[in-house]
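Sample entry (372 residues):
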Amino acid sequence: MANNNFNFDNDSVFLQDLANNAKNNSLFKNIDGTTVLITGATGLIGYHLVRTLLLRNEIIGSNIKVIAQIRNLEKAKSMYGQLFNDENLIFYVSDICDPISIEGKLDYIIHGASVTSSKMFVENPVQTIDVAYKGTKNILELAKEKKVRKVIYLSSLEVYGIVDMDHPEVTESDLGYIDILSPRSSYSEGKRMMECLARSYYSQYQVPVVIARLAQTFGSGVSFNDTRVFAEFARSAIYNKDIILKTDGSTSRDYCYISDAVQGILLLLTSRNDGEAYNIANEETYTSIKEMANIVAHEITNDKIKVKVNIPKVETNGFAPKLKLKLMSRKIRNLGWTPSYDLCEMYLRLIESMQTRQNSEHHSRRGSNYER
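Predicted structure, serialized as tokens:
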């Protein structure tokens, strides 16, 4: 039976996003003909990156060798389908916490393997920190040994913590407060410490590291069953069900469309600004959770659904603290990066992508039952 998360080759939005970046020659200066290691290659960003590089090979003949680090081989087989046997794709099956050994040359590393579930942050904070530290140290040691051209460490907006809500616009130097005694801070504090570790490897060993601080990123390829708030809103629109907020929805942040984020990461891969951090976010998408819910209800469904607030009486540690955080992207824009999609377009593309793969699953089930 097919899995609706993995029917990517029927997803026209996903394929269009890949093609737009794969054809963009400005993103591939000094990347064609090289070997790139991507960790977390079954995650949303890692998968987009691997598929983009492989499509670049198909369209341009770029001869980019991709080493995809994964934990689950069967999941990778399901996700990559016929590409699983691509001659330019090598799967490295390992726990990111174990030392990594790569034979032959290695030019670039994009390190995206990380715990991403808020539930995991709270219930397993020790493992969350372990994955961050051991995994990143392993990657940096490998980069030092191989003398790579560049390492991109994929960090997060959560490194900023809680900033002054009266002045939510933050640049790369504006760090706020993180409650280190909260188990949920295992993720945000872990990301902050790994940035320090990466910068230390640059300072002490001259490992060429660049840090990409990603806003919350979504778009084509998001699992239909994703539990993050943007996916919950998308499913509400798909099923014409009211959006139920479990907080007051005052938390405000900006977002980034997946192919825009991939473009930014590839741009940083060949930048010359080693040891620095860059926000990858679209300031035009800055909005509160409640405002975003209203946009989905009003503009995406034409008021077919409503937004309701139902705050649990018992507060859960799984929710991030309330904040207002507008990442400013002037620094990466100065390198030539420009995001393409606003929030409405992001949702339209997200919903079409999710629906296409969900419909493919239904057709696959019907066909399978008929054949029996």
